[in-house]
Design a protein that fits this description.
Helices cover 26% and strands 41% of the residues. The protein is built from 1 helix and 9 strands.
Length: 143
Amino acid sequence: MDNIGKIGGMMMVQALINQKLRIVLMVTIAFMLTIGSTQAYAKNYYLQLTPSDHSVVGQTVFFIKGSTIYYEWENAGSTHAVGFGVYYFDGSSSKLIDSKVAGSGSGNAWNYVTAPYSGNYFLRANCGGAGQTGCNGIGFIRD
């Protein structure tokens, strides 16, 4: 009877150890899943200017005040320079926050700007001067 009691006790201790290991394993897996699901990935929101366009406007992207906005433009055989910029949209009107110019031909330009407000921003590109066309390029704003 004594041996049976010892064996039963050892089995009970082993079962408790296994239970603790299962709990530690479950907590570790839950923690790993939480970390994996909260990682942020930047996304580019593209905008294309074709030779028949004078001006194009991209989709709005939400930024929190103080966050960094990266934007870029690259021409692909444009006959004119392309002016492009980041605009803040408050729901009724837009305000230019920052702008650059990409030279004609295969010119490109980019910049970083800090979001002065929490809200929606978009990229806008214009070909050459008033009403000009013949530009060809692509740009993006990155969240």
